[in-house]
Design brief:
- This protein is 31% helix and 23% strand.
- The chain is an alpha/beta fold.
- The strands form three sheets. It has an eight-stranded parallel sheet.
- Helix 8 links the parallel strand 7 and strand 8.
- The radius of gyration is 19 Å and the shape is globular.
- Keywords: Isomerase, Magnesium, Metal-binding.
- GO terms for molecular function: metal ion binding; racemase and epimerase activity, acting on amino acids and derivatives.
- Pfam families: MR_MLE_C, MR_MLE_N.
Length: 327
């Protein structure tokens, strides 16, 4: 039976705005892909990211261009070579996983995991701002066990100290989004270590991170923009201790599962992250994150409105997705 593909742009308002070193956004624009066979539908979501040269219209066009191949029965494994990694392939790949679960009556979790999926503690993100504003937000969320703090300026010491002092019982990870100047790298890492920070994510720009080979890594250094697929791993071994896997970078759950396996075999710690999107985008990543050292799947917590049904969050604990949502 032929398969039908549809894709649409949807917008979700962000509660209070979201600021990183590259700018501020007040809305999350996502693309929802639906692949149907008969009366069964599979859904996937992606977030085009300008940092990687993606636009909403460009990704939407890439998804629609795949419709003839999908109608002809393109498989997830064939998709890996038919499309490049990125947001478009992610939406199609996750929709195919969801469709396969519906057609077979075998949940995606049962096909991926050896044991039932369990609730996970996710990070909660503190946007970049002035130190006092960030400290107030950290104090408001000091009950959360894991805070992810956006930094990425040449003078982040005051931010690091303020946030860590405001949430002394929380584990803190920092995300510099490629924003630390190389001449401040060692200083900021030393301050992070002194304050008990658990991990620093992508302190230097991808492709210009060789300095990480030559400094003492006093905290775990995690690659984000520097890693997309398994082919990137070899070049990272002397610079990073962990990698952040995001489905919109890998181009879907299929590639992400392979990347995680290969990274673990090389001794990297695993972080599973996300763009700012809805529960539909987080659901497959929750299965990928079951044995990760760090989980950062708080996208829906940052939205003023999520999908219905969506993921269930109990504080910072996120429950596995119901099949009515995905998988």
């Amino acid at each position: 039976m032929s398969r039908r593909l549809e894709a649409t742009i949807e917008t979700f308002p962000i509660s209070g705005g979201f600021t990183i070193s590259r700018g501020t956004k007040t809305q999350a624009h996502v693309i929802t892909c639906v692949i149907a066979e008969g009366n069964v539908e599979g859904r996937g979501e992606c977030v085009p990211y300008a940092r990687y040269g993606e636009t909403l219209d460009g990704v939407l066009a890439d998804i629609h261009a795949a419709a003839p191949a999908i109608a002809a029965g393109l498989t997830r494994q064939e998709l890996l070579t038919a499309m490049k990694p990125g947001a478009a392939r992610n939406a199609i790949d996750c929709a195919l996983w969801d469709l396969e679960a519906g057609l077979s009556d075998v949940p995606a979790a049962a096909r991926i995991l050896a044991a039932p999926a369990k609730p996970l503690v996710t990070a909660y993100t503190i946007s970049l701002g002035e130190p006092d504003v960030m400290a107030a937000k950290a104090a408001e969320n000091a009950h959360r066990p894991l805070l992810k703090v956006k930094v990425g300026t040449g003078d982040d010491e005051s931010r690091i100290r303020a946030v860590c002092a405001a949430a002394p019982r929380s584990t803190v990870i920092l995300d510099a989004n490629e924003g630390w100047p190389e001449d401040r790298l060692a200083h900021h890492i030393a301050v992070s270590s002194e304050c008990g920070v658990a991990l620093v994510e992508q302190p230097l720009p991808a492709g210009r991170d060789a300095a990480l080979r030559d400094i003492e890594r006093l905290v775990t250094i995690c690659a984000d923009e520097s890693v997309h697929t398994g082919g990137d791993l070899a070049a990272l071994r002397d610079r990073y201790d962990a990698i952040n896997i995001k489905l919109d970078k890998t181009g879907g759950l299929t590639e992400a599962l392979t990347l995680k396996r290969d990274a673990q075999a090389l001794g990297f710690k695993i972080m599973i992250g996300c763009m700012v999107g809805s529960s539909l985008g987080m659901a497959p990543a929750l299965l990928l994150a079951q044995d990760a050292e760090f989980v950062d799947l708080d996208g829906p917590l940052l939205l003023a409105r999520d999908r219905v049904p969506g993921l269930v969050y109990e504080g910072s604990l996120v429950l596995p997705p119901e099949q009515a949502l995905w998988g």
